[in-house]
Amino acid sequence: MSAQNVRQKTLVAIAADPNSDGTLFKAKTADLNHLFGNHVFNEKVQEERLPKKVFESLQETIKNSQQLDPAIADVVAKAMFAWAIEHGATHFTHWFQPLTGSTAEKHDAFLLPDGHGKAIGQFSGSELIRGEPDASSFPSGGLRATFEARGYTAWDPTSPAFIYRHKNGATLVIPTVFLSWTGEALDMRTPLLRATAALEKQALRVLKLFGNLAPKHVFSTMGAEQEYFLIDRRLAALRSDLVITGRTLFGTRPPKGQELEDNYFGSIPDRVIGFMTEVEYELALLGVPARTRHNEVAPAQFEVAPLFEPAVLAADHQMLLMQTLRNVATRHGFTCLLHEKPFAGINGSGKHNNWSIATDTGENLLEPGETPVDNAQFLFFTTAVIRAVHLYGDLLRTSVSGAGNDHRLGANEAPPAIISIFLGGGLSEIFESFAQGTAAKNVKSKLPPIEIGVSQLPPIKRHSGDRNRTSPFAFTGNKFEFRAVGSSQNPAYSTTVLNTVVAESLDYLAGKLEAALGKGKDFNTAVHDVIIETVKEHKAVLFDGNCYSDEWKAEAAKRGLPNLVSTTDCLPLINSKKAVDLFSKYGVYTKVESDSRHEIYAENYVKVIQIEADAAVEIAATQILPAALKYKKVLVKAATTKTQQALTDDVDKLIDALIEKIGKLKDILSKVPEGEVQKTAEYYHKKVLPAMVSLRETVDALETAVDDELWPLPTYTELLFAR
Ligand code: ADP
Ligand code: MG
User: Fold this and answer.
1) What DSSP designation does 69 have?
2) pLDDT in tens, 555-571
3) Can you tell me whether residue 100 is helix, strand or coil?
4) Is the pLDDT of residue 37 over 60?
5) How many angstroms separate the alpha carbon of residue 223 from the centre of ligand 2?
6) DSSP letter for each residue of 656-709
7) Residue of 211, 257, 504, 681 with fewest CB within 10 Å of its CB?
8) Is residue 393 within 8 Å of 541, Cβ to Cβ?
């Protein structure tokens, strides 16, 4: 191949230099145990560095959600400062999760002029506790007029501070909440904290009814499996659609995609495992317990899953995980794509949110044990989840909506937009008999081990149920797995909704149980009756079959389960009466906060598609059209036979169609209705998106016609397979 255009030169460069920038990562020690949490101001460091009284007071705040004693702030800040300096930090930042879905930080130097021509390093308690970033550039959904730009960040001591390294230094990062001057939550963390408190209150109430008095605290746990694509950075840089929007707006399916299914769990390429090792090293320093790594279904797609943790901390760690993936990728000459659907026709990326409820005494409240049928407390909590998902499946679906995730949910891909629950063998039978109104028989919950037929191997214990990969909300042994979350999303939002709806359900069921007990019913009968009555009423949400099938769509409609296909269907639910009543009752979002979220998410949806459409027009007009015209010139010159003339005509037609479709998209974009943002969002969904799809068809047809040397965009094959 004579390397002529920049694309082809890049490919040759990649072929010659598989390790890209040549810097090989060297872990200082392979002893991850020793490294783990080294850059976290955790309990151990606190104990070492704080006076005993201060340490105890801080621990009281952290462990029992007590208000922080402002008197200790200066002492803590001083210790934190000294520790941070030792780790090379020059700056500190309040770190928060605004409603953009990512994280935000503004760095302040420790160094301040001392007034005598020198400078001194310092960090005070008030700087630790409170920050005041100019909030006017963060989305507030009308919560704040720009002239009232004040926003406050406030230290959340329950999430430990940490050091974030970069090539030339480090920053002390302080996790905070982000509030408006009037006290409304402008972030993702605050509602999650509130929803977790609501869940705790109701769960403790239920545990008390069951005579389980040991736990003092209850919280939700989260383990979020993160899927991502890894693309050579030099190729990605040549695609302005990837650079601008994080996904390809054009591109034909490669001759080889994922048909052979040879990528899933395949051996991890050397260059990629080098990247993963450095990611894990950085995460270990930050105390993020990355546990599994593997190839995913699509070519160039991978997954990393951390071990589960309390949800608020796990959400922080998720944000750090995404940031680390992106940063380390750059060091390795890769671009990490976290978009839900970077490539049409190739599997998209999700983030399975594994969710459960745990106590401070180490109990997992969704652990069925050996004989679930005898485990009334487990059955009661699971019943509450079933009721919650049935009543509020629409709000759960809404919590994972967004322009990117629309390409997965509701499209022909995992998982569907209809929210149902998979319980699996064993449990399903138990709840099926409840639904029939009868107490479950002692179902054979102990399955015989799997026969391997090879004598030297030990017998393998079988799980109580097989897996069902098609369900959006699946019970997987001792937790539920909410699979509809998008790969780029902050899982704090879906967990906030999950915690709230389950809190509501526990509240309702506890009320029923208390009433029955009040009437003198014996405890076992009362629990039994509440469970049976509830499951009977909410069994419609239980479905173990294939959730991708058309039969299920029809069946789900018959059962009255909502099928919210696009974000525009979901947006009105955010501040619907149902949502506002629920969230304000449990102190999670006020009405104003719900309204603001509706506004912000609708605006975000509009902006994302607007940017995509503008990029599509630009690429088609300035890169594709000129290439096609050049090729046409070549053809016209060369054509000597009728057949060759026919080929020229075909390309000609495509060029005409291209010009026409660029014009049409531009025209549609010039007529976007102003005013109510919901209307604008619907316009983008119904008019702009189809015009983009139509333009794409023509561009993709040209890709398979035009001379490869003239084609400006790296192809899918190149993006997915070159490393
Ligand atoms: P897979 O679903 O791929 O088989 P695992 O069963 O190992 O994977 O778990 C997937 C994720 O679920 C991991 O992040 C794991 O830590 C998390 N997980 C396991 N138990 C719980 C729990 N009780 N609560 C929340 N997440 C959990
Ligand atoms: Mg999983």
Assistant:
1) -
2) 999 999 999 999 999 99
3) coil
4) yes
5) 9
6) HHHHHHHHHHHHHHHTPPPS-HHHHHHHIIIIIHHHHHHHHHHHHHHHTTS-TT
7) 211
8) yes
How many angstroms does the Cα of residue 569 sit away from the middle of ligand 2? Answer: 27
* The predicted structure's pLDDT at residue 705: 96
Query: For a substitution probing ligand 1, which of 309, 479, 502 has the most ligand atoms within 8 Å of its CB?
Result: 479
How confident is residue 182, by pLDDT bands cut at 50, 70 and 90? confident
* Span from the CA of 675 to the centroid of ligand 2 (angstroms): 42
Between CA 482 and CA 408 the distance in angstroms is 14
Confidence at residue 448, expressed as pLDDT on a 0 to 100 scale: 54
Residue nearest ligand 1's atom 19 by CA: 308
Q: Which pairs from 391-394 meet CB under 8 Å and 24+ separation?
A: 391/501, 391/504, 391/505, 391/538, 392/497, 392/501, 392/504, 392/582, 393/418, 393/419, 393/420, 393/541, 393/561, 393/562, 394/419, 394/562, 394/564, 394/570, 394/573
Query: How many residues belong to the chain?
Result: 723
Mean pLDDT over 230-258 rounds to 89
* 250, two tokens: 């054009």
Give the position, in ligand 1's atom list, of the atom nearest the Cα of 222. Answer: 25
Nearest ligand 1 atom to alpha carbon 355: 25
Reported CATH class of domain 604-721? mainly alpha
* Domain parsing of the chain, residue ranges: 31-187, 188-221+350-436+443-450+457-503+543-587, 604-721
Whether 202 lines ligand 1, by a CB cut-off of 6 Å, is no
Q: What is the rounded distance in angstroms from the CA atom of residue 162 to the CA atom of residue 324?
A: 14
Q: What CATH number should be reported for the domain whose range is 31-187?
A: 3.10.20.70
Q: Kindly give the distance from the C-alpha atom of residue 77 to the centroid of ligand 1, in angstroms, as a whole number.
A: 36
Which of the two residues, 482 and 256, has the higher pLDDT score? 482
Closest-lying ligand 1 atom to the alpha carbon of residue 224: 14
The pair of structure tokens assigned to 84 is 């941070």
Bridge partners of residue 352, in order along the sequence:
225
What's the confidence (pLDDT) of residue 105?
A: 83
Task: Name 492's Cβ contacts closer than 8 Å, sequence gap at least 6.
Answer: 97, 188, 189, 191, 192, 311, 312, 315
Q: Which of 651, 23, 608, 30 is nearest to 281 (CA)?
A: 30
Is the Cβ atom of 495 under 6 angstroms away from ligand 1? no
% of residues, the chain, pLDDT over 90: 67
Which of 62-76, 254-268, 488-502, 667-681 is the least confident region?
Answer: 254-268
Look at residue 454 in the predicted model and tell me its pLDDT: 57
pTM (whole model) above 0.90: yes
Q: Please tell me if the CB atom of residue 364 comes closer than 6 angstroms to any atom of ligand 1.
A: yes
C-beta of 222 in contact with ligand 1 (< 6 A): yes
Query: Given ligand 1 and candidates 295, 296, 308, which is best to mutate, with the most ligand atoms within 8 Å of its CB?
Result: 308
* Tens-digit pLDDT profile for residues 369-416: 888 888 999 999 999 999 999 999 999 999 999 999 999 987 766 678
Q: How confident is the model at residue 102, as a pLDDT? A: 83
- Residue range 441-468: mean pLDDT, rounded: 55
Of residues 436 and 690, more confidence is placed in: 690
